[in-house]
Design a protein that fits this description.
One of its GO terms (molecular function) is ATP binding. Keywords: ATP-binding, Helicase, Hydrolase, Nucleotide-binding. It holds the Pfam family SNF2-rel_dom. By secondary structure, the protein is an alpha/beta fold. It folds into three domains: 223 residues, 3-Layer(aba) Sandwich (Rossmann fold); 185 residues, Rossmann fold; 50 residues, no CATH class. Helix content is 41%, strand content 18%. A six-stranded parallel beta sheet has the order 12-19-18-15-17-16, sandwiched between helices. Strands 3-4-2-5-8 form a five-stranded parallel beta sheet, with helices on both faces. Helix 2 crosses helix 3. It is globular. The relative contact order is 0.11.
Length: 501
């Protein structure tokens, strides 16, 4: 294929990190080495064009991937695309430079407006790092400009391509992003998806990766569902089956090391703290739960479907003030958070708080700041560069408290200096809970990590926990040595351990 664009090596590249000291970089490289299991994985990567790294979070999947991409270029002249959540772009850019002999001009973050992306594409980069959507929209132009691109590496695969997409009668069904990935892989021979949670709440989240590696296992998505799912009257899976069959396929085409294999048993202590809604909050919650209609001073809130009713109940629990509902019981979640934050400040300890809803995230930030804490925020409103800055300030101890959404902060960050994590709420995915707390379990710890989960008594907090438990059971039927989530329903103020595996 003839390229229509000529790489311009000397052009200024927009949206790239500028703080790298090349001499310091070279010195740090000399101190690094792969662990034995990482070397074994690396050999497998070079031996097979298409394979997966399904190692647990925190075991070091990025390091051998960086060596792998450099090896493809140094030995075969193969360039790579590295797709990932945008929150990881800067972090993985640094990791790639540390664990390879690439120089900064060889590694380009592909992000920004069309003019900026054109300049980035016109460089002679050997690896292009980008978000999932940028890959789906631009892979054709990238391959046209750089026909040497013959490798796709994906970090946190389950966040980008866990939903099947297909074309039928000229229309896209399912995930268009996954459909674009399928089409790209018809032209890209080398393939390395990385994730510690390939089974992301449902068995069919494994199908896209299997379909790329060896489509003849199932032939079609419908065949996969017929093999592994029992469907209800609406065509939705209500029970998964044949876990062993799927496990055998995944084992054949992947490398994997558990956290326990790499570092020993997780050094953690997990507690459930039961909280009490304020009287007004409980009345509003009960009214919404029973009638799906809540009368406020200036109007009504209606929940037209059960899903909306659940969402409204969660809003009443997590940020009732937005509806004008007072919180004055002394035992609410904010009351518990106030104690934890003050204790962390008194002990000069870093603290991470995970919260699902955006309004509650902002309220937690305000609460921590009112106590004198320096606070960082990581959620969907924070841009990639701002995320990198907040992460750096938190690791350097300039920030005391980090308030996060599990979806944004649950991958890629290394907060091993943290001794306490708090989940003010959890989502429905068992995998996101494990990914989140393992931000602070990076390697072997000398002191236990304390994990607190706040729940309101007799609320949908228990229902959400039950759903996470059920998804965890399906995942551990495929990966039997995985960590299993089991959230206890305690009647005491302080529950016991609720993780096993």
């Amino acid at each position: 294929m003839t390229s229509k664009r000529k790489p311009a090596a000397s052009a200024a590249i927009p949206n790239q990190p500028t703080w790298v000291d090349v001499n310091e970089l070279k010195e740090r490289r000399e101190t690094l080495s792969l662990r034995d299991y990482q070397k074994t994985h690396l050999a497998r990567f070079f031996a097979e064009e298409r394979k997966m790294d399904l190692s647990h979070p925190g075991t070091g999947k990025t390091c051998p991937a960086a060596v792998y991409m450099y090896g493809l270029w140094a030995s075969e002249g193969i360039k790579s695309i590295w797709a990932m959540p945008k929150s990881l772009l800067v972090k993985n850019w640094e990791e790639l430079l540390l664990w390879s002999n690439f120089m900064p001009d060889d590694v380009v973050i592909f992000d920004g407006n069309p003019k900026q992306r054109d300049k980035q594409m016109a460089t002679d980069a050997k690896v292009f790092l980008m978000g999932f959507d940028a890959f789906a929209r631009n892979w054709r132009q990238l391959l046209e400009c750089h026909p040497q691109i013959q490798s796709l590496v994906v970090d946190e695969w389950h966040l980008g391509f866990s939903t099947h997409g297909w074309m039928y009668r000229g229309k896209v069904h399912g995930a268009k992003r996954t459909l674009e990935m399928y089409q790209a892989m018809r032209r890209i021979p080398w393939f390395l998806p990385m994730t510690g949670t390939l089974i992301d709440g449902r068995l069919n989240s494994a199908y896209p990766a299997i379909n790329v590696i060896e489509p003849r296992y199932y032939g079609t998505y419908d065949n996969f569902m017929a093999t592994h799912a029992l469907l209800d009257d609406y065509g939705k899976p209500w029970l998964w089956k044949n876990h062993e069959h799927l496990a055998q396929i995944l084992m054949k085409h992947s490398v994997r090391v558990t956290f326990e294999d790499a570092y020993g048993a997780e050094n953690k202590q997990v507690f459930v703290e039961l909280c009490t809604m304020s009287p007004a909050q409980r009345r509003a919650y009960a009214e919404m739960e029973e009638t799906a209609l809540l009368e406020l001073e200036d109007g009504f809130i209606e929940a037209g479907t059960p899903a909306v009713a659940v969402m409204r109940c969660r809003q009443i629990m997590q940020h009732p003030e937005t509806f004008g509902i007072p919180m004055n019981s002394g035992d609410t979640k904010p009351d518990h958070l106030r104690v934890h934050i003050q204790s962390a400040l008194d002990a000069n300890k870093a603290l991470v708080i995970f919260e699902v809803t955006r309004e509650a995230q902002n309220q937690i930030v305000a609460l921590a700041e009112s106590l004198g804490a320096k606070v960082g925020l990581l959620n969907g409103t924070v841009t990639g560069n701002a995320r990198a800055k907040a992460d750096s300030e938190f690791r350097s101890r300039f920030l005391d408290v980090m308030v996060c959404s599990p979806e944004v902060a649950g991958v890629g960050f290394n907060w091993s200096h943290v001794d306490t994590l708090i989940f003010n709420s959890i989502d429905y995915q068992d995998s996101s809970f494990i990914q989140a707390y393992r931000r602070a379990l990076r390697g072997k710890r000398d002191t236990p990590l304390k994990i607190y989960v706040l729940q309101y008594r007799n609320s949908i907090d228990q229902r959400i926990a039950h759903i996470a438990n059920s998804k965890s059971k399906d995942r551990t039927k495929v990966f039997k040595d995985d960590t299993q989530v089991h959230i206890v329903q305690s009647n005491s103020m302080m529950g016991g351990d609720f993780m096993s595996g």
